[in-house]
Hints:
Structural class: mainly alpha
Strand content: under 5%
Helix content: over 70%
Amino acid sequence: MGADRVFAYGAAAGLLGDLLLGDPRRGHPVAVFGRAAGAVERALWRDHRGRGALHTAVCVGGAVSSAALAASAVRSSRTASVALTAAATWAVVGGTSLAREARQIGRALEAGDVEGARARLPHLCGRDPQALDADGIARAVVESVAENTSDAVVGALVWGAAAGVPGLVGFRAVNTLDAMVGHKSPRYRRYGWASARLDDLTGWPGARLTAVLAAVAGDDPRGAVRAWRADARKHPSPNAGPVEAAFAGALGVRLGGTLSYGGCVEHRPVLNGAGRAVQQGDIERAVRLSRRVGWLALGVCAGARLLKRGRTS
């Protein structure tokens, strides 16, 4: 069995495992990595880009090296290689947890429990929930589902197809570091610069594939492409822009606008301005679109591996 089939079988098993099991309540590998990265930060932190770059190199390099050693150790066994790929895929993707959190907020809104929805929102994104009404919460959830479809599912599959288990693990390590230190707070503006830029780089292909697949799988393919082309560059994030714009067009809703992070109000450009305002029912539509995009991404990535093998054989 070649590496292409190992990836295809292992990634499919890992996605199925995520669908059936979700994330473990305790001892998640990503949480273990986060604690290790936190320890490295405590040892290295200075308000300096160089120290931050060293932090990024140590954490990502360590994760990728460990994954490469594990893959090398099981290379002689096809069954073990598939199992390792499945375990790595299950560990780094988060589609089920994403859907679960979004749906819990959606159910609270449906029941009229806005306070309950506000209490759940920090589990999904970093918005200030007290500043949001029911429609604002629904919009925040749809935007988070869109962005995390790329970050938590598609991007990992892209790098898994490109580099196997080290690619899966490396992508999640980069994405986790960005969430930890990549924001522009006074503490991390310089220290987190390298992590943020590396996340932009590694997230680029997955974000574009997510946008394409959202257009293919959504209710309005033309609307998705139109919103992507017209509005993606307006977004401050080079990767969230295409994804959120494509989801907005595919769902026929308006995203972006005024939001609040950490007490700071931010006015972002509107994405798909011709769409309607987001409503509670759009959360479930976004979750279903995210699911379709994830499985289509598996097909595309596995197919790309097989095609590459056919051309080089």
